[in-house]
Amino acid sequence: MVWRTNSPRKLAITFDDGPNPPITPKLLALLERYEARVTFFVVGRFAHECPELVREIVVRGHAIGNHTATHANLFWSTPTQIREQMLRCNEAIGTITGTTPKWFRPPWGMRNPWVISSAKGMGMRTALWTVLPGDWRVKPASWLIERMEPIAKRANFSSGGTGNDSHAGYGDVLCLHDGDYRFLNADRRATVEALQYWLPRWRDVGLEFVTIDAAVSLPAL
Ligand SMILES: [Zn+2]
């Protein structure tokens, strides 16, 4: 299981619960501007409904992860139900992109003893996060911007090199949401605005924006 990156210079931004027609394209345009590669953990049924968005995510060089077929709470699921949720999401993604996801994120981070091993059995590693600002709440962007402050603080600290930080040697995995797991077309403008604020600032403190793959598989920067 992975929940952080292998370098304080690497920030892995991740989006759960999409794709989402009013928001995902805005994020893709914004990420392009900062040459940021990120990871979208999509819900299978939304991927099925918005195949062109899923294709666009891949075309632009981002990673796609599995976030189950219907955003089920796997804590209460049997091994068979867990496999079914993972398989149906992989099928939706596979049909659209011709590729099989290598990463899985359990809805709400909820898991029981079978979740990680089931994902592994399907060739997927499980990814959690270090920073969860709570962008699913209906709050102004200013609230969200403040909740994301620790990332830049840590990045400054790391480059200062006092070596005394509990995060020393590792970087953050940020968990945001481009959709709402209950329905399509959710309003996530605060998430877009908060990233508009932070992406240039993060770049200025020397952070690199990487997919969850690059977060752990490439040599540390
Ligand atoms: Zn979710």
- What do we call the CATH homologous superfamily? Glycoside hydrolase/deacetylase
Distance between the termini: 21 Å
CATH architecture: Alpha-Beta Barrel
Strand content: 5-15%
Largest sheet geometry: 5 strands, parallel
Based on Cα principal axes, name the global outline.
globular
Q: So how many helices?
A: 9
Query: What ranges have pLDDT less than 50 throughout 5 or more consecutive residues?
Result: none
Bound molecules: zinc ion
Number of domains: 1
- What is the CATH C level class, in words? Alpha Beta
Radius of gyration: 17 Å
CATH level 3 topology: TIM Barrel
Mean pLDDT: 94
How much helicity do the residues have?
40-55%
Order of helices and strands: EHEHHEHEHEHHEHEH
* Overall SS class: alpha/beta
Q: How many strands appear in the DSSP assignment?
A: 7
Give a summary of the structure in a few sentences:
The chain is an alpha/beta fold and 221 residues long. The chain contains nine helices and seven strands; from the N terminus they run E-H-E-H-H-E-H-E-H-E-H-H-E-H-E-H.
